[in-house]
Write a structure and sequence with these properties.
This protein has 17 helices and 17 strands. By secondary structure, the protein is of the alpha+beta class. The protein is elongated and about 95 Å long. The two termini are 33 Å apart.
Length: 449
């Protein structure tokens, strides 16, 4: 296992960006993606790095269920809270085995988990609790023992018992001995036996969570793009900068990325012909300005010849507009897939909820190319809005398999076309029937590809 610190969370990597994707990408986001791809546990301080390393030097649990054995309720609750944030469970312990343990303990003790042995706990009682966790509680995968001292009596026998149990128990035992002053001598002697102490219960719980949730390293399988020859032909004849809508559409087709029906027009009569051929309401968007919505360059639901004429004239009057993009209207949940080339890393692919929400909510996930199927799955499932994509409260879900496939197609396109500097598919429309690209922008930079 590898744990590492990467200092600096600079936004310098996004200064040259002009798209939504580029504005959100950063060198630090790329570092995160690189660490995940390589299976490296990222830490943000020396204390966190030392704590994670200390967990890794101990046996690791086979599951996510932890028992907390303590003689002080407050630290146990704080540890439980932090473990919950890391999706580690402190399950309720009950049944005949729990009742048998409770009969051996002092009145007022609790075994429901955390197992509270009270401040007057002895080494013998601690041994009963650890034996029960090892032999009787099958749902428990590991044990954390919180045991400090107010300085009223020595803890040698308790720490000796803890050391002995750690040698014989098959389930991992993590010592949290917080009394570095009042029990300083006993803690030092415990450490001298070759043990590692975690003096803070929350720091330990956070480190354990990082280790249990560590990324798995699996080599990425490069997905082949649909028509590499066509992609190379299109890009070889293109100059640096944003591709025209026509070239963008051809590139998406060559990559196998499905999109809505569309056409670019520069005359009102052509706009009318396209509208009539679609036989459905259309969206009309300016061609030229990068951020169409910001300049009022997007209108939806145009459903008559009169409105086509009116909106065409209005859109063509917007500064820097070269033509108008006509698109068939489609329904679905707005999604987003984008990419940006990060120097020294390759392409960073991002995904999340689309439309304006991609910048407002910033609910995005990322991975470095080539993106594997597992990574694409993790990108989707790690989104805070994942439940929306599954469908909730009468709202229909999307074709999640299709969304995953589209992420993989974008990754394959980037592998075939390294000169792509920025790419936005925003929005994509997701429904139960599939994923359609509605708006796409691709910027190429050949010099440093």
């Amino acid at each position: 296992y590898i744990a590492a610190i990467k200092a600096g969370t600079s936004d310098a990597g996004s200064r040259a960006a002009s798209s939504h994707t580029g504005a959100m990408a950063s060198s630090d986001l790329a570092v995160d993606a690189l660490f995940r791809k390589a299976g490296i546990i990222r830490c943000y301080s020396r204390m966190e790095l030392a704590s994670v390393a200390s967990v890794l030097l101990n046996p690791l649990p086979k599951g996510r269920n932890l028992a907390i054995v303590t003689h002080a309720g407050g630290p146990a609750v704080m540890m439980t809270d932090e473990l919950a944030r890391g999706s580690i469970d402190v399950p309720v312990i009950k049944g005949e085995a729990a009742d048998r343990l409770l009969e051996k303990l002092l009145p007022g003790s609790s075994v429901s988990n955390p197992i509270d042995l009270l401040a007057t706990c002895t080494a013998e009682l601690l041994g009963y609790a650890l034996d029960a966790c090892e032999n009787d509680f099958d749902s428990i995968d590991a044990v954390a023992v919180i045991f400090g001292s107010p300085g009223l009596f020595p803890l040698d026998d308790i720490y000796d018992l803890l050391d002995a149990k750690m040698k014989t128990m098959k389930k991992p035992v993590y010592p949290v001995l917080p009394s570095m002053i009042t029990a300083g001598r006993e803690v030092r002697e415990f450490i001298a036996k070759g043990r590692i102490n975690f003096p803070d219960e929350v720091v330990f719980a956070s480190a354990l969570s990082k280790v249990i949730n560590r990324p798995d390293f699996k080599p990425s399988v490069i997905r082949k793009v649909n028509d590499k020859d066509k992609i190379r032909e299109l890009l070889d004849k293109s100059a640096n900068g944003y591709l025209s809508p026509e070239l963008t559409s051809e590139l998406l087709d060559a990559a196998g990325i499905e999109r809505v029906g569309e056409a670019v027009v520069s005359e009102v009569n052509d706009a009318l012909d396209v509208f009539r051929s679609f036989n459905s309401p259309v969206a009309m968007k300016v061609v030229g300005p990068v951020h169409k919505s910001d300049v009022g360059g997007v209108v939806l639901g145009v459903d008559s010849d009169e409105r086509v004429r009116e909106e065409f004239d209005r859109l063509m009057s917007i500064k820097d507009t070269e033509a108008v993009l006509m698109q068939q209207m489609a329904e679905g949940t707005e999604l987003f897939i984008g990419a940006k080339r990060e120097e020294g890393f390759g392409h960073l692919v991002m995904a999340g909820l689309g439309g304006i929400f991609v910048e407002v909510l910033k609910d995005i996930s990322s991975a470095l190319t080539p993106v594997s199927e597992m990574e694409a799955d993790n990108m989707i499932k790690s989104l805070r809005g994942y439940k929306l994509l599954e469908g909730v409260r009468g709202m229909k879900g999307i074709d999640i398999e299709g969304y995953r496939a589209t992420i993989l197609k974008v990754s394959a396109l980037l592998e075939a076309a390294p000169e792509i500097f920025e790419m936005d598919l925003n929005p994509l429309l997701g429904s139960g029937k599939g994923i359609l690209a509605v708006d796409a922008r691709i910027r190429i930079e050949k010099d440093n590809a």
